[in-house]
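Teaching assistant here, posting this on the class forum so everyone can see the example we discussed in section. The complex has two components, and the goal was to see what a joint structure prediction looks like when all of them are supplied at once.
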Amino acid sequence: MSKPHAIIVGAGFTGTATAHDLALRGFDVTVIERGDICNGTSGRTHGLLHCGGRYAVKDQESAIECIDENIILRKIVPGVIEPNGGLFIALNESDLAYRDAFIAGCQACHIPLEELTPAQALRLEPNINPKLLTAFLVPDGTFDPLRLALSFAATAKKNGAKFRTYSEVKSLILDGQGGVVGVNVLERASNQTHELRGDILVNATGAWAGEIAEMAGASVPVKPSPGVMVAYDQRFVERAINRLNTPGDGDIVLPQRRMVVVGTTSFEIDDLDYVPVLEEHVKLMLERGAELIPGIRNARVRGKYMATRPLISSGSGRSAARTFKCYDHKETHNVDGLVTITGGKATTLRAMAEGTADVVCRKLGINAPCTTKDVLLLSYRQYYSLPN
Amino acid sequence: MSEKWNITLKVSRQKEGETPHFDEYKMEVDPDEYVLDAVERVWAFMDRTVCFRHACHHSTCGACGMRVNNVEKLTCITSIRDMCQDGGTLKVEPLRNFPVISDLAVDMGSLYNRLEAVGARSVLPVPEAEIEKPASTWDPADQQYIRLADCIECGLCISACPSAATSSGYLGPAVLAGAQANGLKRNPELLQLVDAEDGVWRCHSAFECSAVCPSLVDPARRIMNLRTQVFTERFSRLFHKA
């Protein structure tokens, strides 16, 4: 029997990780991406390898996913991670009032935690706000977004997956009974249109998931929610610095190479393909970032940018759950052959892929367990050197 | 209200089998936007066929390197104000010395292969990350931290290098810089690769690489240092023959 053919639309975090997972489970995999790898939300991710502390009070399902996946990613893809940990710091009474809930939440989610005195915290990170009241040391990290996705893509490629970049899905091929059997693709490098047929179509287009689902007459409750980030030209800290409080705007500062990046905001939009970087959000990042690290005021802005999160619309903005969901559209809209994965976070990309591949295998009656927890990924550079 | 400029974005276009030509797009921009924002807006609102590579939009991924008005730039952090004037023209072309995939997107496979060949480290201990911080100034406490290497593997140095234009086999600035950071003492097997016509000796010190590097790698200085390492390694081999 020939291998089942999975077509994945989107080569961001979920697309590349799902390609890796399905290739290991014996699928022929083709990934269709309208730009190059990670040109949408994934590439512009803040880059925080979450320990889960941010969600430990209000969204424990996400928090547990984060700490579990954080540990796995450190092991399988060390070449793209700055594994230096993180601090949650309290700067006022409101932050301090959050302390007990934070400790209880982290304990409930098995997130390792060490409380430091202000003096201890300042010894570790001399550039944080000296007026801090308390600090917690956590196993955060930072990662290089593009290289994280490329590492999954490289390993998928090694196992036979094909990547067709600069290829845009123009329409879906339907079987006449509402089922999806393939895609019509415009290859942008040659301006030629091709037909590609498969046994299952995985919609891994994140914030754009609704557009692909709509082509099959299905829908996805995804709420695109952009946020602005600002990069400054000095590496003030070695660790991720988080504000000890309910998640809000500009409450995380991350080191990355010789920079720090302050993020982020949360707003709603209509046009997904171009989201302007709002100047008032940039100003807010400076204000909020400088509360955590005062030196940011004297640093030079290196880049201002935004990314659009694919939130599942169970709530709005910050109150929406950050966990992920995989939809079998046979169950949601009686459309066979189509699965959508969306929501989630960069840190949980491997788990999102596992969940998606489980659904795909179940639909096709294939019994193949997930092995991605233990497979060391190839160097991201191999994506470019392996034949397609 | 932010300032508005009217500019002409002149984009190099080349599809499979075609010779390159320019397409012009008249646009209203905020001069403090980045060149990449203008290119992305062309794709979003004016011409869906334009191909270009981009990912992080803050100079950490190295995907968006292009030639802007004849100079290699990381377009996500290059403001329009720095490259032209109100009413002016912004010419964007693909990087040189790499095959064009389509329009502004190039195939940098050769660079990644060579970086792998010299084992260029993508993460390294913080004290070893910057060339201008010699070992004598390292803070021992920083030895425990790991960070992403400065080189974002964007290919600007290869595009700007006059020597790379004369020999497609030349390892090139980013690759030699990766070998230098690894050190021949620690990796003696690299000697053969870098002590060769297409290794450190192809460089003729134009220093274009360091001029265009957006990430302070200073490849030119690293190549000079690598030459010193080559001599030291050769010399020590003279006296330590097996």
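For the discussion questions: The CA atoms of residues 104 and 132 of chain B lie 33 Å apart. Chain B touches chain A through 53 residues (CB under 8 Å). Think about how each of these relates to the inputs above.
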